[in-house]
């Protein structure tokens, strides 16, 4: 079994891919260069440092915590959903992925205007935060958007291969090879550039020109999923109903 890479190794790969120096990142984040060098050398980053780094790296703070293998603090967790729906239900079953741009823009405004009603958690999220193989990290990042891994979402939102949900699970659980088509699909669902994602996962660079898009998605689809991760069950149902109204579909 290969050694688990430290967060510093992941961060170093990201900086190398971007052609950014540690010194410039230290200046951008107002972090002492010695502190950043220590992390790059293998020291575990503290929560305060991760919160400083995330905006400078243009990554969601919660995602950076997960790349670092840390449990999410309460203010960064997605909403605790208990009903049958999740954000993936909105994206696929209510066809947000192929909405006309004007309807999509209206739906996103509707989501953003909803108040934050995340239910307090009784246990840390996620509970398996120490796993660091690429598939486990991808599963954690997808879950961080309150999306349940599902063929429909990975294929229609991520433009992934037509495989069963169980096959996707086997791939991300390390029981089948994690090939480029699965990583590319995950990157689209997550809204993380493929070059950044592969660097943080420790994977070889992948050609972004291979991102075939057979049909047009609304700009901002991954951002809508992120906005919706904080919604309660009741609010998510309201958004799904609103999506149906905007496209003239019957609600279910």
TrEMBL record:
High-level lineage: Bacteria, Bacillati, Actinomycetota, Actinomycetes, Micromonosporales
UniProt-recorded name of the protein: HTH cro/C1-type domain-containing protein
Organism: Luedemannella flava
């Amino acid at each position: 079994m290969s050694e688990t890479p430290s967060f510093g190794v992941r961060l170093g790969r990201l900086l190398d891919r971007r052609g950014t120096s540690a010194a410039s990142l230290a200046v951008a984040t107002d972090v002492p260069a010695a502190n950043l060098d220590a992390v790059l050398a293998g020291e575990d980053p503290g929560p305060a440092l991760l919160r400083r780094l995330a905006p400078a790296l243009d990554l969601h703070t919660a995602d950076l915590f997960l790349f670092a293998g840390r449990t999410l603090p309460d203010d960064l967790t997605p909403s605790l959903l208990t009903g049958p729906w999740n954000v993936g239900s909105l994206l696929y079953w209510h066809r947000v992925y192929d909405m006309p741009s004007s309807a999509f823009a209206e739906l996103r405004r509707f989501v953003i205007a909803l108040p934050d009603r995340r239910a307090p958690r009784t246990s840390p999220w996620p509970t398996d935060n120490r796993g660091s193989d690429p598939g486990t990290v991808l599963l954690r990042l997808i879950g961080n958007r309150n999306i349940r891994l599902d063929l429909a979402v990975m294929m229609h939102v991520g433009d992934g291969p037509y495989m069963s949900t169980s096959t996707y699970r086997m791939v991300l659980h390390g029981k089948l090879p994690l090939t480029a088509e699965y990583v590319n699909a995950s990157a689209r669902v997550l809204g993380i550039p493929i070059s950044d994602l592969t660097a943080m996962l420790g994977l070889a660079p992948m050609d972004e020109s291979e991102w075939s898009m057979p049909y047009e998605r609304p700009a901002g689809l991954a951002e809508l999923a992120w906005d919706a991760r904080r919604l309660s069950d009741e609010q998510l149902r309201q958004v799904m109903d609103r999506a149906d109204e905007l496209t003239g579909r019957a609600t279910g």
